[in-house]
Amino acid sequence: MALDIRPHGRVGAEILGVDLARPSAADLAQIRAAFAEYGVVFFRDQTIDEAQHIAFARALGPININRFFTAHPHHPEIALVLKEPDQRDNIGGGWHTDHSYDVEPALGSVLVARELPPQGGATAFASMYAAHDALPDHLRARIEGARAVHSARHVFGSKPGAYEAMRETSRDGRIGNAGAADVLDDVVHPVVIIHPLSGKRALYVNPAFTTAIVGLDPEDSRALLAELYAHALDPRFQETFHWRPGSIALWDNRATWHYAHNDYHGHRREMHRITIEGEPLH
Ligand code: SIN
Q1: Is 153 one of the annotated active-site residues of the chain?
Q2: Whole-angstrom distance, CA of residue 52 vs CA of residue 65
Q3: pLDDT grade for 16, boundaries at 50, 70 and 90
Q4: What whole-number distance in Å separates Cα of residue 47 and Cα of residue 56?
Q5: Which of 60, 113, 172, 213 is most buried, taking the most CB atoms under 10 A from its CB?
Q6: Element spanning 130, H or E
Q7: Is there a domain that residue 282 lies in?
Q8: Catalytic residue among 96, 150, 174, 254, which?
Q9: Are strands 201-203 and 192-194 parallel, antiparallel or unpaired?
Q10: Is 261 a catalytic residue?
Q11: How far is CA 158 from CA 7, 150, 184, in A?
């Protein structure tokens, strides 16, 4: 049966008429196609347990066991994205795409809402297909054939201070294993990739993990990245997803950025994330 796939404002699509606890092969084929086209797909009113979450993610590709996030106590495949009422910082509270610091960056992530604050806690998404397609000519010319360096060390590593947003989360144990980040080599990816599933071009730098443009001196590199980020964050390329109990998002890390709003202090938010392995980007 054809699923009901409805565009979600400027970014993504909502998929209705599927039960992710038992998706059929035909459902999965339509989900994969929508994922490639829209960059992020959303589901509502789902009731899936942890094993079904893992099975759904596995149907999309091999699971990447997260090296830095605290894992679910019984399911190492599931990374906890958690904020307790007495904590101030959240995880993912800056624009980023997951795992761009890997040689083969993650294909995507499946985020399941487990406990939500009474209000707030939405997630914003930005389309890097749209950002690429709207690049002004002068910026497009400057990144023609360019490559960028990505790193996890300044975010998850032990050197204090570089990435303010992670300070509390590392202190209280939500993020750990800094030693593994300290020894990770930097990786290089094209600034514009050809998306492996859709064949479309996408801008592939992000404010959290991209540290430099190869071959530019540090000041020029910082300035070019700042210009690219200012362009990519045009509200025309963004949409916000408001979570409800039973909501699930499946985003493409090669085609979108995301940003978890941190506007629910004093309340608990628990999300379960599974990240799916990707492939080299060209
Ligand atoms: C993340 O950045 O992976 C988490 C997003 C969210 O909690 O909304």
Answers
A1: no
A2: 17
A3: very high
A4: 12
A5: 213
A6: helix 128-133
A7: no
A8: 96
A9: antiparallel
A10: no
A11: 41, 17, 12
Check pocket membership of 258 for ligand 1, CB cut-off 6 A: yes
Three-class secondary structure of residue 157 per DSSP: coil
For ligand 1, say whether the CB of 260 is within 6 Å of any of its atoms: yes
> What number of other Cβ atoms are within 10 A of residue 196's Cβ?
15
What are the strands, taking DSSP E only, across the chain?
A: 4-7, 13-16, 40-43, 63-64, 79-83, 108-115, 123-127, 147-150, 187-190, 192-194, 201-203, 210-213, 238-241, 248-252, 256-260, 269-276
Q: What is the pLDDT of residues 245-259, one digit of tens each?
A: 999 999 999 999 999
Q: For position 36, which CATH number holds? A: 3.60.130.10
Q: Cβ neighbours of residue 75 under 8 Å, at least 6 residues apart?
A: 50, 51, 54
Q: Domain range holding 245?
A: 4-276
Domain-embedded: residue 17 = yes
Annotation marks residue 273 as catalytic: yes
Which pLDDT score, from 0 to 100, does residue 214 have?
98
Global pTM reads 0.95
pLDDT digits (tens, 9 = 90+) for 88-109: 999 999 999 999 999 999 999 9
Asked if residue 272 belongs to a domain, the reply is: yes
Q: Is residue 281 part of a domain?
A: no
Domain count, the chain: 1
**Of 27, 89, 98, 252, which residue is the catalytic one?**
98
State the distance between the two ends of the chain, measured CA to CA, in whole angstroms: 35
Residue having the nearest C-alpha atom to atom 7 of ligand 1: 260
Residue nearest to atom 6 of ligand 1 (CA): 260
Q: Angle at the Cα of 168 (from 93 to 89), degrees rounded to 5?
A: 35
